[in-house]
Amino acid sequence: MTNPQLNPTHHIPEYFRADTYEDESPSKLKKAFTGSWLLEQVFPALVYVVDGIIPEGLTLLVAAPKIGKSWLVLGIAIAISTGQKVLGCLTTKSAPVLYLALEDGPRRLQSRLRTLGVTSLSDNLTFITDVPRGDMVETIREFMDRHPGENPLVILDTLGKAMPSAVGGETQYDRDYRVMGSLKRLADDNPGSSIIVVHHTRKMDGADFLDAVSGTQGIAGAADTILLLKRSRHETQAQLQVTSRDAAEGEYIMEQSGTGKWVLAGGSRAEAAKAAIDARTTDGVNDRMAEVIQLVNKYPEGMKAKDVATLLHLDDPTARVYLRRAYEAGRISNPSRGLYAPVTSVTSVTSEPELFGEVTQETHVTPLSGEAA
Fold it and tell me: Which domains are assigned to the chain?
């Protein structure tokens, strides 16, 4: 007698079971499954390309031109193909990598590798610098087929260089979603595999960072994970914002050295995330206010005004004023009376620079009414 615990079709009603019908059956329910069957299944753990940041599936990396996104994905390609640390601190497992460097040629790629200090590479890393627009999906499919079960990584740099034209009657949205949907299916059909698509941002981005993705919503809509890399010109630091169906959303500060190599600030994901909170919550404030916010950010359990005053050598009334102004601008939270803590989500922080004028006569500030110590 068959053990129902070992029988994957045990709780699937006959009219739901695919094997009930012949292949030519017109039933629309052949691929359906019940909730009880779903709960009994054991699925493999999520595979990450970059631990905690880029999971398997389809990832869209968007950034403005010439701020280092190609250096970033080249560093990822090298690390994954060799099994070395990525972003300076995160361990990886070696896997085959196809890098479609469609904006570069062999000479530039070699120059960048040498700038990065690379002296040898394994055959795990394959480059292609020219793919006809109509061949993009099939090129990636062939590479995936050659590496079944090996968690292959494909990097497409950039989408605009390979995006095919719309076919008869398609809108731009339809074309975008069709192409990205094809890439997503390739990743889904090869569990553990990853496709990273490099794309440009709009000239003007909106309040929601997904609005920064150039093109129609069909491009962002099909992706499992979206990364936005933002950096001011001539700055060595950048913000990496992450939103994902599978990985935790977050924001990290990264740094690019003179060699072009990107690393996480502070040498870990946790420290890079803390640096992002500090950068976001102290943007546009004066030095003293920045010190207050950074101090509060170090204590997720919260701290009182008197503790802030002691650690920053302020009098209590001054500390209360700074804390109240920071709270009113959304830079810190006030979970209970007299207790101040970091904001729970950096994406909710608002910028109100007019609230952050320098407090001058620090020893003569009147406490805000009702302020608890």
Answer: 1-42 (no CATH), 48-273 (3.40.50.300), 282-364 (1.10.10.10)
